[in-house]
Write a structure and sequence with these properties.
The structure holds 3 protein chains of 3 kinds. By secondary structure, chain A is of the alpha+beta class. In chain A, about 25% of the residues lie in helices and about 20% in strands. The longest helix of chain A is centred in the first third of the chain and has 25 residues, at about 30-55. The model of chain A is unreliable at about 1-55 (pLDDT under 50). The chains are: A alpha+beta, B alpha/beta, C mainly alpha.
């Protein structure tokens, strides 16, 4: 894992979030694809030009304080409970590694939700436009009714944020738990049915979309952030002129944090512009 | 909000457009967006019921969403300090703003409730053979059959004057009062609960030192946290621990963890001090040596509030860092530096928990506590604080004459007479040993095991198996068919914490009481445990000595109540009314978060509290100590001490009224093995030391994802970690020819188990270890057959002072399997 | 003698089909439950089979079309055979990938909700066009104008060649554009896919010609020799490109580009490359084709080996590329069999593949019986 460490000014951070981005960043296309690729690029450019101001309203993201994170994995489980994800579908795992040699040794870890990249590689590859980045808030979601389950987006995500729903169930599915609705399932908070979407779909973290869309105010933190034992996961609007107020912990200013603290984003070199920052 | 066409409009539009246009980059997001916005409605329907968690004993506040009678979600309860902070200032100022927290186990509660492997109806064993791996051949029976069988067994004991031959084992922090009441009215002194497998060693250490069992750390205000053998960021019994500790660090505190294993807490710490197991006492004494030697102690505090400093000073004179280095494997210079840093940073706190599960544990804990005492870090912000534990009042019942007879029998485990720091939770290890060797004062015949898995929680599993086989009749009340339940003659389906009541008063520094209440009806129509006990009481016709029909009469209304739930609600109401909150159950339910929070808040320096004159008027004085009086005028509890200036203050509830570095009262006392008690917090090598044959220390620990041995069948938690291997230092493994992922045998004189080797740099080379709780051979489909249970490798032994199970005193050899 | 072999063949085929039907039944009954791929290795045997078959198709088609365009008389004779082979293998490819997707009933969404940015969408549209072109060519070649077919076929071939290049190059690009997987993210990938298609397609045709072409003396010998030489040349060219693709990153030996290569060359499945691809799929065929270029038996064996073992190349594209580039520590963060980088196709996956192969064989057998596959149109007429 390569990490770029850098400290940026407030202006830089804001610019980067609000700045217009060329969609013609794909390098390494063979001659066969260049012609093909240019067409939609032009289209995208055009749409960018016309809609910049009205569409880019919010850019929701997370600032995760690794000084606080204790590797309890409450976020992982809270997400499962909130979204009723099946076995093997985990929107926010905690990644861990050990470095050093006894007695100079450390275990390092970080929770890894979807980064809701500003330049998401996953949405571009979808053959049926089933996954996309919402213009209004930058949340990357999958339309389960459209996804054909080809899993191309899983391969395209550099961060392992996408999971295929194989239709597996927890043993509890046979109990009353199977009648507990999930906010994600087809038809407002429906039940999980065999062979029906999202079974056979690719699934991912949505920043708890149902909570965000509930009143359109983005006043509720995603489940991982809410439950976090050390309050390490800050969620909020990184594009807000008011300074990226964190909806999780009232009074906490995300942009201020990004200026005051050192931070990294993962695989920055890919140009994906993750919307999840890790404070070091 | 955005102004995009809604679905219907869009479909019209789409019908007119060509397929190409429909899917072009311009329109792409619109279709799905409109649709998805239409289809997602409100998600917060149903009812939100405040309660308290019991995935572990931490009793964190929770909010439960119930939709159509089903539990849908569990969220943190912002109105309950347990789960936010143990200090009131922090709670009052920040809880509403930041929101409370929950641990992974709490978040996984729904999987415990809806576990398909739960016991659903009473079961009777049809196989008379008992043993590990023996199929009991369960047969489902009716409740009536179960009750009448159990009652007839109990009645036979009581009628035969053998009520004391009932051993009752219970979980703590849930319905303990009614169970101990039952035992008392039934006539058995043998009511036991979980604590003696947990922290009665620590309790004894602090009892000696400060006369109080359970000081808590004020992490958020601390500047230096020195923690021995505790993993508070992972063993997150109270969900607020990670928050207050990381916040303390954020405010400038330094965290130092002394542990043979690089726990997550040790990883998070500024310094990890890998130490040889069971030598913490030596390290603490050497640090005290440095502090005293260099005059870094808080002499003013010592002069006023400490007894025995001179003896202590004398004792640590030769406990040099060099002396400790040879014992602990911690370099002398490091000991010196840590001692100086600790003594010169104020406020600092020091603590130890289950790192004390060894024969030197109580003295080591005392020595560790002594560090706080000599630096004056007691009862101050950022230091060790005595919690004000005021909540519901246990209303004592008065047994009848028949019961009084059998209650006069000694406790089977020896009780206070045998264990100088006996805790009311009993001594599981001793019960097991005496059952096996038959050398107790009598031989118990029947056991009631409520939510306890003795086979996995008491070390020396083979012994525990033998012990259970000696009992004539066992009733297990549990949600799961645990290893211990497999030995039961009758199993009663228990309830999870989401299906029943409890009052919770622990774990923060000021009086707080949280309500646990049924958020869903018991899934299988089973009675909650307290109703089961009540039913037994009714059927046995147990009454108080004065004929009061205690299991029938509502404590509030004074009327006979058929409905056992209502009866118990009055039981709780009375405890609340008579206790600190002085409210009824209904009023408690109506409080925000169903939590009563005293406005008094955290108070420091409580030893300086003046005893109010009205209390003094009705008190007894003995030397410089002041005691309250019992009804009959005899001496009750210590309430204060007379100071030289004539004032009476609370002080500390020790024989001197002060913090004790020298325990004079030990002079006449002996421990359970008959050895005289030490007068000072001495370091002695623990009894079981590595030998050439068994050269490695085996330890175990807890992680945030599991509680003891009881959550391993939880589907959410199993995904976080479905088993644990044997963590072994890379260099040690290389010497043994073991590679990562290899199967190895871990063998002690008591048995051997097979585990997967997990190579790491993060453990002392002389130590191997694993997370406790794996290796189930029953319990449920997810728990069964994963990992190994190290209890097979241990002896069944209790600390001779406190009765604490010596869970971590094991030596093994490891070889490729 | 012949009929006994024939009977045995059909018995084997029946067994294959039966097994395959079990696989298909499982697929429809249990969805993806029985497959061994997961969320870290989301693409498995079926995707590898898909690019393998589609490569065979593109290769066979390109070869015959190029023959028409450049008027290589000797090769025009296999024009019809190549068309049929291209159609059947394309069908097999589509069948494989259809079984692979999560919602088989939604495959047509790619036309109704297209993403012009997705290489996969382009690939599907292009092979749809290619499929239509093949059908048109088949119609002309066998029914509409079998006699004057060559001119038409040449016209369609001229259309078809860029389409086939674009479409199979596009399959390569589908992988190459994935920046997240350094192992795939190579500009050479689309080229490798094309040469690979030509190699495997020609080798496959060689094997078919050597086995099934009516023995009419010199004509067949010449055809076999020509195909042998092309196959040999393509294998060598392929190896050259492969050498370039492997040696350049390995020279620097710096992650992340070499991660996948290390897995392919020295991982737990090293033998797939060294034995499957290099020995049986390349060296042995090179020897056979160089030594016995016009011996139908040996050259045919060489072609068959090269064609069949080309599957190892496809597997080595799909799998190591996914194993590499996983965030360190992600594997093991969650304990679930789907969240691992260890992948071996399950029995179920093999059974479904058996079904695809059985269908392909059946189609070929029917085509062989019903259609005049061998010889150019003019030859047939004569």
């Amino acid at each position: 894992m390569e990490k770029l460490e850098r400290q940026e000014t407030l202006e830089n951070v804001i610019d980067r979030q609000l700045g217009k981005r060329s969609f013609l960043k794909l390098a390494g296309l063979g001659i066969f694809t260049a012609a093909v690729a240019s067409l939609p690029s032009i289209l995208s450019e055009a749409s960018e030009e016309t809609g910049t101001n009205t569409k880019r309203k919010f850019r929701y993201g997370m600032v995760i304080d690794l000084k606080r994170c204790v590797n309890c994995k409450a976020c992982t489980v809270a997400c499962k409970l909130e979204n009723k994800t099946p076995p093997g579908v985990v929107y926010n795992p905690v990644i861990e590694e050990e470095i050093g040699e006894f007695p100079y040794v450390q275990r390092r870890w970080f929770p890894k939700p979807c980064f809701h990249c500003d330049n998401p590689p996953c949405t571009k590859v979808c053959p049926v436009t089933a996954t996309y980045k919402r213009e209004k808030d930058g949340i990357v979601i999958v339309d389960y009714d459209a996804c054909i389950g080809c899993r191309y987006c899983i391969t395209a995500c550099p961060y392992g944020a996408r999971y295929f729903d194989f239709g597996e169930n927890y043993p509890a599915q046979q109990t009353e738990y199977g009648r507990v609705p999930s906010p994600e399932f087809h038809g407002a908070h429906g039940l999980r049915r065999e062979g029906k979407s999202p079974v056979g779909n690719v699934r991912k973290c949505t920043f708890c979309l149902h909570l965000q869309d509930e009143n359109g105010n983005y006043t509720r933190p995603p489940a991982c952030s809410e439950t976090c034992m050390s309050k390490a996961i800050h969620f909020g609007d990184l594009a807000s002129q008011a300074g990226g107020l964190c909806v999780t912990h009232e009074g906490c200013n995300l942009k201020q944090l990004l200026v005051e603290r050192k931070w990294i984003r993962l695989k920055e070199e890919l140009g994906t512009e993750p919307m999840v920052y890790y404070l070091l | 909000m955005n102004h995009l066409p809604n679905r219907r409009e869009f479909l019209k539009l789409g019908g007119a457009a060509s397929a190409g246009l429909l899917g072009s980059g311009v329109l792409r997001p619109i279709s799905a967006l409109a649709k998805e916005e239409l289809e997602r409605g409100p998600y917060d329907g149903g009812t939100w019921i405040p309660s308290c968690c019991h995935m572990c004993g931490g009793t964190t506040g929770i909010m439960c969403q119930v939709v159509d009678g089903r539990l849908a979600r569990i969220k943190p309860n912002d109105n309950n300090p347990v789960g936010f902070s143990n200090i009131s200032d922090d709670f009052f100022a920040n809880a509403a703003k930041e929101g409370a927290v929950m641990c992974p186990k709490g978040n996984a509660g729904i999987m415990a409730l809806y576990d398909p492997d739960r016991v659903k109806q009473p079961l009777r064993r049809t196989n008379t053979q008992k043993g590990i791996g023996v199929d009991p051949h369960w047969k489902a029976i009716s409740w009536e059959e179960a009750y009448s069988e159990i009652v007839s067994r109990l009645r036979a004991l009581r009628d035969g004057g053998e009520a004391h031959k009932l051993e009752w084992f219970s979980e703590d922090h849930c319905f303990t009062h009614i169970q101990s009441d039952f035992c008392k009215l039934f006539g058995t002194p043998n009511y036991n609960m979980h604590s003696n497998t947990c922290d009665t060693g620590r309790k004894a250490s602090f009892k000696i030192l400060m006369g109080d069992e359970r000081p808590l750390i004020d992490a958020i205000n601390s500047k230096f946290m020195l923690i021995f053998g505790w993993n508070p960021l992972s063993a997150t019994k109270w969900s607020h621990l990670p928050r207050i500790i990381t916040r303390g660090i954020e405010r400038g505190a330094k965290l130092v963890i002394v542990d043979p294993h690089l726990s997550y807490t040790a990883s998070k710490a500024h310094e990890w001090v890998p130490i040889r197991p069971a030598t913490d006492g030596a390290l603490a004494l050497a640090m005290a040596h440095v502090i005293v030697n260099e005059g870094l102690q808080d002499q003013a505090f010592i002069d006023e509030w400490v007894t025995g400093f001179d003896q202590f000073k004398d004792y640590v004179k030769d406990k040099t860092p060099q002396w400790a280095e040879a014992i602990t494997a911690v370099p002398a210079e490091r000991i010196e530096r840590l001692a100086r840093e600790f003594a010169t940073t104020k406020p600092a706190l020091v603590d130890v928990w289950s790192g004390a599960h060894h024969t030197n544990g109580v003295y080591a804990g005392w020595a560790i506590g002594a560090l706080a005492v000599i630096t004056g870090n007691i009862e101050k912000p950022g230091a060790l604080v005595l919690p004000e534990k005021k909540g519901n009042k246990h209303i004592e019942v008065e047994p009848d004459d028949a019961s009084k007879q059998t209650l006069q029998q000694p406790r089977f485990d020896g009780g206070k007479d045998k264990w100088p720091y006996f805790h009311s939770s009993g001594v599981y290890a001793e019960i097991i040993n005496r059952l096996v060797d038959g050398k107790g004062p009598y031989q118990p015949k029947m056991a009631m095991i409520v939510f306890q898995n003795l086979l996995m929680s008491v070390v020396g599993t083979k012994n525990a198996e033998e012990a259970l086989k000696k009992l004539e009749f066992i009733v297990a009340v549990d949600t799961m068919l645990s290893e211990t339940a497999q030995f039961a003659d009758i199993v009663i389906p228990g309830t999870t914490y989401l299906e029943r009541y409890d009052l919770n008063t622990h774990w923060v520094t000021w009086p707080v009481l949280g309500l646990r209440q049924p958020v869903v009806k018991p899934l299988f129509g089973q009675p909650a445990e307290y109703e089961f006990v009540c039913e037994l009481g009714r059927r046995l016709n147990l009454k108080e000595g004065n004929g009061h029909d205690v299991f029938w009469i509502g404590r509030m209304s004074g009327e006979r109540i058929e409905d056992k739930t209502r009866w118990y609600e009055e039981f709780l109401s009375k405890e609340l009314k008579e206790g600190e909150p002085k409210i009824t159950l209904e009023e408690l339910k109506a409080l925000p978060g169903a939590t009563w929070v005293s406005a008094k808040g955290t108070r420091y320096n409580k030893h300086l509290d003046m005893i109010p004159p009205e209390k003094l008027a009705d008190a007894l004085t003995e030397g410089n100590l002041v005691f309250s009086k019992k009804k009959d005028g005899s001496k009750d509890k210590q309430i204060g001490m007379l100071r030289p200036d004539g004032t009476v203050v609370r002080g500390f509830f020790t024989p001197s009224g002060k913090l004790e570095l020298y325990a004079g009262k030990h002079e006449t006392k002996k421990d359970a093995d008959g050895n005289p008690l030490k007068l000072l917090p001495v370091y002695e090598p623990r009894a079981w030391q590595p030998s050439p044959e068994f050269p490695l220390f085996l330890i175990n620990w807890k992680e945030a994802s599991q509680t003891h041995s009881r959550t391993q069948n939880n589907a959410f938690l199993a995904e976080l970690k479905s088993t644990d291997g044997l963590r072994i230092n890379t260099k040690t493994a290389a010497k043994l020819g073991v590679k990562h992922g290899d199967l190895v045998w871990v063998e002690s004189p008591f048995g051997k188990v097979q585990m997967k080797a997990e190579l790491t740099e993060g453990i002392h080379p002389q130590v191997v270890g694993t997370q406790h709780g794996w290796g189930h051979w029953a319990m449920g489909r997810l728990a069964k057959g994963r990992g190994a249970h190290t209890g097979f490798l241990a002896q069944t032994k209790a600390c001779p002072l406190s009765g604490q199970s010596l869970n971590k005193e094991i030596c093994v050899r490891v070889y490729p399997g | 003698m012949k009929s006994r072999y024939g009977l045995m063949g059909w018995v084997l085929w029946g067994a294959l089909l039966t097994l395959g039907l079990v696989g298909v039944w499982q697929r429809f009954t249990y969805g993806h439950h029985l497959a061994n791929y997961g969320s870290f290795i989301p693409w498995g045997l079926w995707v590898a089979a898909y690019i393998y078959f589609v490569g065979l198709s593109a290769g066979a088609f390109l070869l015959s079309s190029l023959a028409y365009i450049f008027k290589v008389k000797a090769l025009e004779a296999i024009g019809r055979l190549a068309l049929v082979v291209a159609t059947i293998t394309l069908f097999m490819a589509l069948l494989s990938i259809w079984f692979d997707i999560g919602h088989m009933e939604r495959f047509w969404y790619v036309f109704t909700r297209p993403n012009f940015y997705s290489m996969m969408a382009w690939m599907i549209w292009m092979y749809t066009a290619y499929f239509l072109l093949l059908l048109a060519e088949l119609g002309i070649a066998f029914w509409v104008a079998p006699a004057k077919g060559e001119r038409w076929l040449r016209v369609l071939g001229v259309l078809g060649v860029p389409l086939a290049i674009a479409f199979h190059g596009g399959v390569g690009a589908l992988f190459a554009v994935v920046g997240a997987r350094s192992y795939w993210h190579s500009a050479l990938f689309p080229i490798l896919f094309l040469t690979g298609a030509l190699t495997s397609g020609t080798a496959f045709l060689l094997a078919v010609v050597a086995r099934f072409w009516p023995d009419c003396g010199e004509g067949r010998r010449q055809l076999v020799r020509l195909l042998s030489q092309i196959t040999l040349g393509m294998i060598l060219l392929d190896l050259l490109l492969e050498w370039s693709e492997i040696s350049v990153p390995l020279w620097g030996n710096v992650a992340p580009h070499v991660e996948g290569l290390h897995i392919m060359l020295f991982g737990p499945f090293w033998w797939v490359f060294w034995i499957g691809h290099l020995l049986l799929g390349s060296l042995v065929p090179i020897y056979l084709l160089a030594r016995h270029p016009d011996n139908p038996k040996w050259a045919g064996l060489g072609g068959a080996l090269a064609a069949i073992f080309f599957m190892t190349v496809r597997l080595n594209i799909v799998i190591p590329g996914q194993v590499a580039s996983i965030l360190p520590g992600l594997e093991g963060a969650i304990q679930h069999p789907r969240l691992t980088t260890f992948y071996v196709p399950s029995a179920h996956e093999w059974l479904v593949l058996a079904f695809v192969v059985a269908v392909g064989i059946l189609m070929f057998a029917v085509a062989k019986r019903r259609l005049a596959l061998f010889g150019s149109a003019s030859e047939v007429k004569r």
